[in-house]
Design goal:
- InterPro entries: FmdE, FmdEsu_dom, tRNA_methyltr_O.
- This is Formylmethanofuran dehydrogenase subunit E region.
- Pfam families: FmdE.
- This protein is α+β, with helices and mostly antiparallel strands.
- The chain contains eight helices and nine strands.
- The strands form three sheets. Strands 2-1-3-4-5 form a five-stranded mixed beta sheet. Strands 6-7 form a two-stranded antiparallel sheet. A two-stranded antiparallel sheet has the order 8-9.
- A hairpin with a 2-residue loop joins β8 and β9.
- 30% of the residues are buried.
């Protein structure tokens, strides 16, 4: 499918609505999640059937959440701060896993795009520069969507231990601030059970 055809799909529209706009990061996350699901032969996770591990906290991650159904709330969306455009998807059903990472040199930075981005983000772009930025930003997003998965990503099968499923634990009041806190997150300090916030910031 062409970039426009992809952007017209229900799946991409849901990603755009969740994230708020179309951008290269969203496009790359969309492509990575689609490639991982296809390679894993998995459907969108309704509960905790699959686990997603993302290695950056950029726009990319929003598309992964929407497309895979893995979320922080369900406990099957994990963020590891490696600063990489990479996604690992694991199936609880089969025990199989796949890691999709941006291929070196596959999507080189565009100097005009970066310069305009810096100006817009700093609030120093004039009307013409802002308009040009949006045009280049959209083109870069479409360029990504037009690329084949093979040209864009390195895909490898992985074997790793699956994280525990999300647990629901009763809450108890922190002995200092009094706020209800998951029992397993309370820490003993000076004979009191304290929440981590009170331990870290006494």
């Amino acid at each position: 499918m062409s970039a426009q055809q992809i952007m017209d799909t229900t799946e991409f529209k849901r990603c755009r609505e969740f994230h708020g706009h179309v951008c290269p990061g969203l496009s790359m996350g969309f492509k990575a999640a689609g490639a991982a699901l296809e390679r894993l032969k998995a459907n969108r996770s309704e509960d905790e059937e699959i686990v997603a591990i993302v290695e950056n906290n950029s726009c990319y991650a929003d598309a992964v959440q929407v497309l895979t159904g893995c979320t922080f709330g369900k406990g099957n969306f994990i963020y590891e701060d490696h600063g990489k455009m990479a996604l690992t998807l694991l199936s609880r059903k089969t025990g199989q896993g796949v890691r999709v990472a941006l291929r070196p040199g596959a999507f080189a930075p565009d100097e005009e795009h970066l310069a305009l981005l810096r100006k817009v983000m700093s609030g120093n772009a004039d009307e013409d520069e802002t308009e040009r930025f949006h045009a280049v930003h959209l083109k870069r997003s479409c360029d990504l969507l037009d690329m084949s998965d093979d040209d864009l990503f390195v895909v490898n099968e992985v074997k790793m231990e699956l994280p525990d499923k999300a647990r629901i634990e009763p809450s108890e009041p922190c002995a200092k601030c009094g706020e209800p806190t998951m029992r397993t997150r309370l820490e003993d300090k000076d004979g009191m059970k304290l929440c981590r916030a009170c331990v870290e910031y006494p």
